[in-house]
UniProtKB/TrEMBL annotation:
One GO CC term, this protein: cytosol
A Pfam entry, by short name: ALS_ss_C
Domain ACT span(s) in chain numbering: 24-102
Protein's recorded name: Acetolactate synthase small subunit
Biological or metabolic pathway of the protein: Amino-acid biosynthesis; L-valine biosynthesis; L-valine from pyruvate: step 1/4; Amino-acid biosynthesis; L-isoleucine biosynthesis; L-isoleucine from 2-oxobutanoate: step 1/4
One GO process term, biological-process aspect: L-valine biosynthetic process
Catalytic activity: 2 pyruvate + H(+) = (2S)-2-acetolactate + CO2
Top-level taxonomy: Bacteria, Pseudomonadati, Pseudomonadota, Alphaproteobacteria, Hyphomicrobiales
Keyword Amino-acid biosynthesis among record annotations: yes
Family: Belongs to the acetolactate synthase small subunit family.
Coiled-coil regions listed: none
Length: 183
C-alpha cells in the first residue's frame, strides 16, 4: 500500500519528465547501397526521432558519404544513438557537432507564394529583408530561395502565410565544424 505522493513503482524510478536536447550528428559512411536504410532503421527500430536528414557523397575518391542527422532526445538517448551509430560497420566516424565545438548549420528552402497587388509588393519587400532571392516569378506567384539557420527560415515561412503561402520545400540541415579540423 502506498501513501499519497509515493510512487506506485516497485523500482522507485524517477518519474519526473526528462528534458530533451537537439543534437546535430555528422556521420561519415561508406557510399554503398543500403547504408542509409540501415542508419534510418536504427532510428525507427528504437523509436528515435529524426528532425532533419541530409546525405550526399562528399569524398568521391574514397567513396564516402556524409549523413547529417538532427535529432532530439534525452542526454541518455543521444548517447545511445551515437554509440549505436559508431558500432555500425559502414560507419567511419560519428561527430556530435552540438558538443564538439563551434559548428556552422545552414538549410535551404524554396517557398512558393501566390499574390497580386499590395500582397505581392509586401512579399517582395519582406523577401528582400530576409535576403531571399526570387528564383521564379509569374504574374500571380513567386518562388523564393532562402538559406540560413532553421529558425530564420521558420520565421520567413510564418510571415509569408498571410501573404499567400502555397508550399514549402526544405533541404534539411547541412552542417560542418568550424576551424581547420576535419569533421
Amino acid at each position: 500500500m502506498t501513501t499519497p505522493g509515493q510512487s506506485h513503482s516497485a523500482y522507485f524510478l524517477d518519474d519526473a519528465p526528462k528534458t530533451t536536447e537537439r543534437h546535430t550528428l555528422s556521420v561519415l559512411v561508406d557510399n554503398e547501397p543500403g547504408v542509409l536504410a540501415r542508419v534510418i532503421g536504427l532510428f525507427s527500430g528504437r523509436g528515435y526521432n529524426i528532425d532533419s536528414l541530409t546525405v550526399s557523397e562528399t569524398e568521391h575518391e574514397k567513396h564516402l558519404s556524409r549523413i547529417t542527422i538532427v535529432t532530439t532526445g534525452t542526454p541518455m538517448v543521444i548517447t545511445q544513438i551515437k554509440n549505436q551509430l559508431d558500432r555500425m560497420v559502414p560507419v567511419h566516424r560519428v561527430i556530435d557537432l552540438t558538443v564538439s565545438g563551434p559548428a556552422l548549420e545552414r538549410e535551404l528552402a524554396l517557398i512558393k507564394v501566390r499574390g497580386t497587388g499590395e500582397m505581392r509588393v509586401e512579399a517582395l519587400r519582406l523577401a528582400e529583408a530576409f535576403n531571399a532571392r526570387v528564383m521564379d516569378a509569374t504574374t500571380e506567384s513567386f518562388i523564393f530561395e532562402i538559406t540560413g539557420k532553421g529558425d530564420k527560415i521558420d520565421q520567413f515561412v510564418s510571415i509569408m502565410v498571410p501573404l499567400g503561402l502555397v508550399e514549402v520545400s526544405r533541404t534539411g540541415v547541412a552542417a560542418i565544424r568550424r576551424g581547420p579540423e576535419r569533421t
